[in-house]
Write a structure and sequence with these properties.
Helices cover 80% and strands 0% of the residues. By secondary structure, the chain is an all-alpha fold. It has one domain.
């Protein structure tokens, strides 16, 4: 996994924004690129080398996530459940996990797509069960774009603050970014729980 991440980080170092776009696209099609490290790394490169800006890296990353997620969504939408049963193992998505995703979508609605943008591993494959579930495209794109923008811009900015010390602090950044993700997730889960458990007002 570490060697794979280094390969993609080197790609970003050589290709700049194009590399960020390509890597984040692949990461949202199920490839284990380590997106929670890629975006801070892009921000750090922007600060240390000056060939990018963290804001530009955030845009490239967000667009890559939307494109990659849309491709996976389209595959799930067109291929349906039989496709996941046959090929899901290649992105570690079993039939059981698909059922769990579908049940989660059914219970909590379209906001689940937004929440999944902040979950390690899940964020890279969540578009596939969304497509299988025939989620409306406008909701899928809206929540994917919003969640991806928060994720990409936030972590790119974090990386830009670290700058040249990125290599030394990579383990800490990994835990810190994961902490941010978990914190946002807890807030979102609290909101969803409140929304679906509160009692309607009596007129």
């Amino acid at each position: 996994m570490e060697q794979i991440s280094h390969f993609f980080l080197d790609l970003i170092g050589r290709l700049g924004y194009t590399g960020v776009f390509v890597v984040m696209t692949l990461g949202n099609m199920g490839l284990p690129v380590g997106t929670e490290i890629v975006m801070p790394a892009a921000g750090a490169l922007a600060a240390s080398k000056g060939n990018m800006t963290w804001f530009g890296a955030g845009i490239a990353g967000t667009l890559g996530e939307i494109v990659g997620g849309s491709i996976l969504y389209a595959i799930g939408y067109a291929g349906g459940r039989p496709f996941v049963i046959r090929y899901g193992k290649y992105v570690k998505l079993s039939e059981k996990k698909l059922d769990q995703f579908h049940a989660f979508y059914t219970r909590n609605g379209n906001i689940v797509v937004f929440v999944c943008r902040f979950l390690p591993f899940v964020r890279g494959v969540s578009a596939l069960p969304a497509g299988v579930s025939k989620m409306q495209k406008r909701y899928f794109l809206t929540y994917t774009a919003l969640g991806s923008a928060i994720f990409c811009f936030g972590l790119a900015y974090l990386g830009s603050l670290v700058g040249q010390h990125f290599d030394e602090l990579t383990p800490q950044i990994h835990h810190f970014s994961l902490g941010i993700v978990i914190g946002l997730l807890l807030v979102l889960v609290g909101f969803i729980t409140y929304r679906f458990t509160r009692k309607p007002k009596v007129a």
